[in-house]
Every structure is written in structure tokens, then in C-alpha cells.
Amino acid sequence: MRRIALLALATALVVAGCTEQTGEKGGDDRRPQKVDGIPTSAGTHKQKMDVGTIGHREFLLHVPSKVAGGKWEDGKPADAPALVVALHGGLANMNKMESLTGFNKLSDEHGFLVAYPDGFMTTWNAGDCCGAAKVGNIDDVGFLSKMIDKLTDAGLADSKRVYVTGFSNGAGMAYRMACEKPDKVAAIGVVEGALVTKCDPSRPVSAMIFHGTADRNVPFNGGGDRDFNDKRPFPPVSKAVDFWRERAGLPRLGERVEASGAGTDCTSTGKGDKGVAVTFCKIQGGTHSWPKGASPMLWDFFADHPREG
For 76-155, where are the alpha helices, taking DSSP H only? Predict the structure, then answer.
């Protein structure tokens, strides 16, 4: 009897081990541990990705429990969640952006994925800025596009609800993504950044733009140096606001938007015929920093502006 009991216990352990490898219970169906190599369990996962060059690129992916523990069908979430891509500023990294924005908490509350990519030597090639990524002509548009495709093609994110936000140099990169890959981006969220790349998008993109009046790094009214080797001034923030508004054929800003954070004054164009809108948040006395209350405001804006068509 003792041998039979031990054999039964060993068999049970083997079965349990196989179950852990093939999947975990998630809602009504089994959830695979990975899809196309991407972990599906709740939490933040560090990922490496081949982009066809020497070495690899990295990003953090936060999966909320609402997705991990929700209903899965055929190895994919039954309702693919939205994806927010958050780009760090110059001389920072993906971990810094994760802690700076607090998007993980919002992700857990609302059930969207968050990806925090790492720039090249702490910088992004946003066109005329910045640093090593610009000097090396790094294909950051290609990297981010491939990352987005990896997540949407795997069925882990909704291709019509991909949003890109960034701070400073990362904000300039968000602009560049909207300029060059508007078919992949439903809306952008720009915080203390400048439009310093050639821009001729094939379709309009919704944009929410935050900028402080006391920003000395990227001056509100323009000025400063675009990069260490480029003494041309940054354009004023109004240039970017007007560009995206006019590209979508939208009226001038006028609709008041409720804002959180002291000194933050937000106005919007309201939605146009294609569901596109531009909202500008002026932060009186705001410096070159991530504004208090910006993250939940960005998510609310994103959630209201999926890509149509």
C-alpha cells in the first residue's frame, strides 16, 4: 500500500508540473504562460527583442490582473486590451519612466497593458534630437513599431487602441511615431516635449499636450538648444498644437477640460468628424517635470480616442 500511495503522489506531482507549464486558469479558459514568448501572468516583465541589428532592445511590459485573470479564448484575451507605450526622457531609462508616471496602478485599475521601452544609451532619435540615438541614426521608429506589432499580432493588445506617451526626449519620440506611423498610433500624449522632426502623417492623430510655462529645458515659447551639437532653438509648443489641430481640420482650442493639478489649464478642440481631438494643458509655472495628475488625465483621453477605421 505504501508503494501504491507513493506512486499516486508522484503521478499527481508530474500532472501538476505539466499543468503549470501548459497554462494557468484564467477566467473561463486556460491562459498560456506565454504567447509568442511574451509572459501573460500579472506583473511587470522585462523583455528582450531582436530588431535585426547587433545586440537587442529591451522593454518592460506590465500586465494587469484584470487581463491575466480575465477570460481567454484560443490562447488570447477574449477582449484584447489597450496598450500604452511610455517613453522615458533623455538620460533616463525604462525603470525611471515606470516609477515616474505611475501607469502601473492605472493599468491595474482599468485593465490596459503598459510597455516601457528602453532608449539607445538613454536617448531616443526624435529627429533633430537627441544625443547618441540621433548621432547614431538609430531606427527607434522601427524598434517601437516592431514592439507594437509583436504585442498586437499576438492578440495581447488591440491594434486600434495603441497609445504612445513620453516625457521630454521621449515626448519628441511620441511625436515622431505619430508623424511616421499614424496607422499604428491612435493617440499621443506629449509632456514637456517639442516637435523637431519632419512630419507629414497620412492620417490625423489625437494628441494631448502638457507644457509648463517655466520649462527651461524645452521653453514654452521656444528657444534653447535642440541638442548638444545643434544650436537651433526649439519651436514653441503652440506650433505643435496648431500642427495637429490643422492636420485634423479641427477648430481652435476653446472647449474647457477639467484638469487635476494646481495651475493646470486645459482646453480642447472637441472631437472632429473622424473622432480626432487635440487637447492642450498649460501648466502655469510648471517646470521640466512630469505634472501631478497628468497620468490619469492621459489615460482618460486615450480611452476616449480609439483609432477609427
Answer: 94-101, 103-110, 131-135, 140-153
